[in-house]
Amino acid sequence: MTDTGTLNFNWSQALVAGFIAAGVSDAVISPGARSTPLALAMLRQPRLRCHVAIDERSAAFFALGIAKASRRPALVLATSGTAPANWLPTVIEASQSGVPLLLISADRPPELQGCGANQSIDQIGLFGSHVRASHALGTPHDGFDPAYLHRFAARAYEQAIWPEPGPVHINQPFREPLLPLADTTEAEIPESIRVVHPALQPAREAIGDFASRISGRPGIIVCGEMPACPENTNAIAALAERLDVPILAEPLAGLRYGDHDRSHLCVRYNQWLVDQRFVEMHQPEWVLRFGTFPISRNLQNYVGGIRTTHAVVEPWPRWSDPAHLLTHLFRAEPADVCAALLAESLVAAPGGWRQDFAGQEASAAERAEAGHIAAMLEEIPDSTPLFIGNSLAIRQLDSLSGSGEKFIHFYGNRGASGIDGNISTAMGIAAVHGSVVALLGDLTTQHDLGGLALAQGRNAVIVVVNNAGGGIFDHLPQRQLPEFERGWRTPQQISFEHAALTFSLGFGRAESIDAFRKALRVALAAGGPHLIELQMP
Question: What value does the mean pLDDT of the chain take?
Answer without folding.
Answer: 94
